[in-house]
Amino acid sequence: FFFLSFICFLTWRGPNIISSGRRAAGGAAARPPTTLIAAQPAAAAAPAVSVELSDGSQSRHIRLKLYIGRCKDTCRAKVRVTNISRSNLFNARLTLSVKVNGKKMGSCTDYIGGINAKRVRWAACTIRTAKLDNYWDRWLDGDLSRWSPYVYAVTNYRYYV
Fold first, then answer.
1. Tell me: the pLDDT tens digits for 52-64?
2. Which of 30, 142, 144, 157 has the fewest CB atoms found within 10 Å of its own CB?
3. Closest Cα partner for 154 from 70, 102, 86, 92?
């Protein structure tokens, strides 16, 4: 008896938070993708970070929730990665990227490892770049009219079928 196992490689590139794509009450389809953008901060207030919500139809295996710390000259973020499938995931990796006013400031990667079925793993990343630091200094000097950071996540993982 010979059992053939296939390996699938998936890369999901998308928004910060992915819902499971479950149906809404009454059997209606899941709501369409929506966007939630924080209001512009005052000059003395801490900057707000944009977050985007999606219905998650692109990913069958994981759900991401992004927790963003301060995002000034250094951006810190924690990500809760939930395996919503019944199969175990292997070699999971996370890449976070930061854009400020539409310009990419940098990225960082974190190795998550294996995620068992229906379980949660955490990943954290800190982005420190000279470009981000210089851009923050320009914001403090008043050279920039707005400071609107956007953090997004990319996950890579393997699973067996």
1. 433 333 568 999 9
2. 142
3. 92
